[in-house]
Every structure is written in structure tokens, then in C-alpha cells.
Specification:
Length: 385
């Protein structure tokens, strides 16, 4: 896995170096979000499907084209998304977002069919011998083998392409955008991270990324805490339940309650950012980007320790429907940051006072305030030592 991630990270590094050289001014303006979309798609393609989309090499494909178009939608559709949760039939309304969603579905179906046809042909011709057999594409073909007890329909195959590929790729791209944004507007943290990475010297292995680079780990988990890519978890109750509250709450009728009574079929929406940034859980500085909290003995509060989930965060969900690719996503973020931060100095395009607001592509993401498109351009300089 790590070689695939490093391969893509170094492609991004080379491209940014070329931009700086072409500009002749010692720096370049880079739209980091677009690059991360391409990187995530290529990584998922190679790691899960043994297929190189070639997005970082400039190759066009239908999925990436649709994802790029999502980033150009200027209107905030947050209210419409909230209505969808209550009225799913609104998905049939011919809005620009719904049209793009259908385009993405068709593109995913075409690529899934193409990948499966390719891997089946290789299997029939005996070309799979000696190849990596843990990739999702191989498992999907194996599931259709009459000698196996598992069979997947075409719809289930498409779901396997979308779930491990398109959705997590978007989430990682948004998270990595936030990571570079926070480092650009917090130069002291950026310098401290670069110092740790340069002091380590060699290209860290997967295990070393997890154990030997504590500040990198702290930066990544602070990004995951402060800026979760997925804004909420939605769950439907299978049976009646009573949910205890951490403290008494006064309802709009004036009644004080200590628990919530829910019936089978009720839908519960958990706002991930609200929990991850709660001052009652994480302390008075919960809304501040502070990687050191993960290194200090008392940085993670006792209330935070009571929160279930990876490192006491709801970012990856929890329970039977938690994100299965969380360790892959964390490794991808760490490797990309380790390559880029060692080689480049990141700055806000319009200076330290640049204002940021939230935009909405497929997922909420940062954008420059006052601009129509959902872009995040940063000024990138070569690190000279």
C-alpha cells in the first residue's frame, strides 16, 4: 500500500515543482483541491482495482470530470440537502446537483463494467497467476465463480466500486485540503512539522508513520477532529430505545429531561462536527487548531475519552457501520503531507488575513470567501532549507 501512496505523492511533488519553474518567480498558485481529487482517484484505482486512472498524468475520465464539475457549482445547496433527508423523492428533481449525481452513477457503472471485463479476461487467459489477489477487483470476480458460495449481482458490484472508491476518495481529498489550509495559515505549526519530517530523514514506512512521527500524527488527528469530511451520521432504530443524556436538558415546552425516548423506525442524525468540537467534551479551546493537544498528557480531556470511535472522534463513525478504510485514509494523508511539507512552503494566496467559508461540492469543503467556485488555491514555494 505505501509504495502506491508514495508513487502518487511524488507525482504531485513533481508537478508542483514544474509549476514553480514555469512561473519563474519562485512560487506558484496551486489549486490543491483539484490535485487531491486526482490523487485520491488514482490511489483508489490502483489499490482497490489494480487500475491506473492516470488522473495525475492528465488523462481524462468520466468520474474525475464529474467530480471536477461539482467543484465549480457556486450555489450553496445545503438547504436542499437537508430537505433530501426528509423527502428522498426530491432526488428526481432536475437540479444541477442531481444531474451531476446521475452522471457520476453512469460513469461509475461504465468503469466498473470495464474493470470487471478486463479482470475476467485476464483470469480466463491465465494472466492472474502471481498477481496480487487481495485487490477488490479480484475478489469481485472470485465472488461470481460457480465454485464459491458467494455471488454478487451487478448492482452489488457497482456498490463495491462506489463505496470503497468514490465516497472515501472525496472524503480524503477534502481532509487533505483542510490539512494544507491549516498549515498555510499556521506557519509555526507548519515549520514544526517540517522539522520533524526532515529530522527523520528517510522515507518513513507504514509502521514508522504510525509510531515514529508523533507530531505528524498529532497534526493529522487534529485535522480529523476539527474538520471531519462527513458532516453527520444517520441511523434508523430497529427497536424502541431510551437514550440517556450526559446532563439535564430543558425542552421548548419548559420540561427538564434526562433522556430521550425513541421508537422503532425513528431516524437519528448525529452532527459529527458538533461532537468533535464540543467545548463540553474537548475543553475551552475545542474550536482551535491545536495539534499539541494530542501530545500533552492532559490534552485529551476525560470527557473526550468517553466518546466512542477512532481516537475518541466520530469522524469515521462507530459500531458495525464504521469506516472500514480509516487506516488507509490516515496513511494516505500522512504520506502525502510528509512528501509535500518536506519540499514546499505553503502560504495563503492572498496573505495571512484570507477569509475562508464553506462551500458544498459532493461534500462540504473550504473555499475562498466571496468567490463563486469551490476552489482552494494556495501559494506554494520550494523549501530551500
Amino acid at each position: 500500500m505505501a509504495p502506491i501512496l508514495y508513487h502518487s505523492a511524488y507525482k504531485v511533488e513533481s508537478a508542483w515543482e514544474a509549476f514553480i519553474d514555469a512561473g519563474g518567480g519562485g512560487s506558484a498558485i496551486v489549486e490543491v483541491q483539484d490535485w487531491y481529487l486526482c490523487l485520491s482517484l488514482d490511489v483508489i484505482g490502483r489499490a482497490c482495482f489494480s487500475h491506473d486512472f492516470g488522473s495525475l498524468d492528465g488523462k481524462k475520465n468520466a468520474i474525475n470530470s464529474v467530480l471536477q464539475t461539482f467543484s465549480s457549482i457556486s450555489k450553496d445547496h445545503t438547504s436542499f440537502i437537508l430537505l433530501l433527508q426528509r423527502f428522498p423523492f426530491l432526488l428526481t428533481v432536475p437540479t444541477p446537483r442531481n444531474g451531476l449525481a446521475m452522471d457520476l452513477h453512469r460513469a461509475t457503472a461504465e468503469i466498473a463494467d470495464s474493470l470487471l471485463a478486463k479482470i475476467k479476461k485476464e483470469k480466463e487467459e491465465g494472466h492472474l497467476e502471481g498477481k496480487e489477489q487481495s485487490s477488490l477487483s479480484f475478489l469481485l470476480v472470485k465472488s461470481e465463480d460457480a465454485q464459491n458460495n458467494v455471488y454478487l449481482t451487478r448492482a452489488e458490484v457497482l456498490a463495491q466500486v462506489r463505496e470503497p472508491g468514490i465516497s472515501p476518495g472525496q472524503s480524503v481529498a477534502v481532509t487533505m485540503t483542510w490539512a494544507l489550509l491549516e498549515l498555510a495559515r499556521n506557519p509555526d505549526i507548519q515549520k514544526k512539522l517540517r522539522s520533524e519530517l526532515l529530522s527523520f530523514g528517510v522515507e518513513p514506512t507504514y509502521d514508522e508513520l504510525s509510531k515514529n512521527l508523533p507530531y505528524l500524527d498529532a497534526v493529522v488527528h487534529e485535522i480529523l477532529r476539527l474538520h471531519p469530511a462527513v458532516p453527520e451520521l444517520t441511523r434508523q432504530l430497529k427497536e424502541d430505545d431510551i437514550i440517556p443524556l450526559s446532563g439535564p436538558v430543558r425542552t421548548k415546552t419548559g420540561e427538564t429531561v434526562n433522556d430521550i425516548i425513541l421508537a422503532r423506525g425513528n431516524v437519528v442524525v448525529i452532527p459529527i462536527p458538533s461532537v468533535n468540537r464540543s467545548e463540553a467534551i474537548w475543553g475551552f479551546d475545542a474550536k482551535v487548531f491545536k495539534p499539541e493537544r494530542w501530545l500533552d498528557a492532559e490534552g485529551v480531556t476525560q470527557n473526550a475519552y468517553e466518546v466512542p470511535g477512532h481516537r475518541h472522534l466520530l469522524t469515521f463513525g462507530e459500531g458495525t457501520k464504521h469506516c472500514l478504510g480509516k487506516y488507509f485514509a490516515i496513511a494516505e494523508i500522512k504520506i502525502v503531507l510528509s512528501v509535500l511539507v518536506k519540499n514546499f512552503v505553503l502560504e495563503m494566496r492572498d496573505g495571512p488575513g484570507t477569509k475562508i467559508e464553506m462551500g458544498l461540492g459532493m461534500l462540504p469543503r473550504p473555499k475562498l470567501a466571496g468567490e463563486d467556485s469551490i476552489k482552494m488555491p494556495l501559494r506554494v514555494r520550494r523549501y530551500e532549507g
